[in-house]
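Entry:
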Amino acid sequence: MKLFTRKNRPFSMVLGIVLISMLLAACGSSAGSGVSSGSSSSSSSSSASSANGKGCKKVGVLLPETASSARWESEDHPLLVNGLTQAGFQVDYNNAQGSASAQLTQAEADLTKGDCILILAPNDSAAAAPIITKAKAQGVPVISYDRLTQTKDLNYYVSFDNQRVGQLQGQYIADHYTQYAKNGKVNVVMIDGAQTDNNALLFSKGAHSALDPLYSSGKLTKVYETFTPNWDNATAQTEMEAALTKQQNNVQIAYVANDGMANNVIAALKAAKLNGKVLVTGQDATVAGIHNILAGDQSMTVYKAITKEANAAIDLVKAISAGTSTSSLTNGATTATSDGGNIPSVLETPVAVDKTNIATTVLADNFVTKAQICAGLPAGTDGIC
C-alpha cells in the first residue's frame, strides 16, 4: 500500500526541504564556531554598536596628517595602536595625509568594517562633522582626539588646554621681548596654524590674550599675521619671507604656532642672517624644535606630554567598552562646540620649555633623547649635550 498519493506529494516535498534546511543550518552553525570568524566578529560588533560601544573590541583610529608635525606618526600612532592592542582591542589605523575627504572615506570604511568606537583627530574641525553624524546613526561613540570636531553630537574630547598653549607662547614673548628690542622697536610677525583646525584658533586666542595689551600700549607692534593652510611648513617659510620683505628685515619677534613651521621660519631668518637675533616660538617639543633651542635659533616650545593624551583616550575606550562611568576620567570638564554642544573632556596641562628646563621636562620624561637633540651640536652645549 502506498503511503503518498500524487495529491499529497507537494506536502512531502515541502517536508523534505524543511528537513534539509534544518540539517544545513546545523552544519553552518558548527562551521561558524570554528571557521567563520568574520561573520561572528561582524555580529558582535553590530551588537556593540547598537549598545553605544558597550562590549566593543574593534576601534578605528583616524589621524589627520603627517606634513606639519612629526608627532602624529612618531608618537600618537604607536602610542594609540600599541596601547589599544595591549588592552585587547583590534585596531584599524588610518592617516588622512591632510585630506578631509580622505578622512571621511576612511571613517566610512571603518564603520562598514564594524568598528564600534572611533578615535578621531580631525584634519578639518568642521568638515569632520559628517563622520560623527554617520557614527551616531550606527550607535558608534566618537572620541575627538587632540583637535575638537565641531558638532554637538560628539561623545568625548581628549586634548590639552589649547588656549593655555597659546597663552604660554604669548607670555614668553611678553616676558622676554625687551631683550630683542632694536632702537626701541619690537615688531612682531604672527604665523598661526590652520584656520580649519579649532586648536589653531585657540592657540591664536591664547597668544593674543597675552600680547594684545602690549600691542595696545605700543610696547609691541604687530606688523604681519596670517593663518597657514593645513599647517604647511613650506608655506610658513614663504609667509615669513613675505613679512621680512615687507618690513625690510626689521622684525624682532616671530610668533610661530608650532615647531614644524618654526623650523622653516628659521630657514627664512637664516637666509636674512637674522637667526638667533629674533625671538621665535614653537610648540610640540619636537626633536627639531629642542635642537633649534639648543642651537640658539628658537627661543621656546610648548611640551604636551602626548603619552598622557593617548592614555586618556585609551582609558575612555576601555570604560565605554566595559559600560562603566566615564565621569571620573572627565571630572566634569566640558568643551563648547560652535553649534552649542558641551562635550565631556579630558584636558591635559601643557608646559613651556626653553633652555632652562629641557633637562627637567622632555629629557626627564624620555620624550626625546640627548643623542637626538644634541646631534651636530658642540659637546657641553647649555650643559646638556
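Residues 7 and 365 are 86 Å apart (CA to CA).
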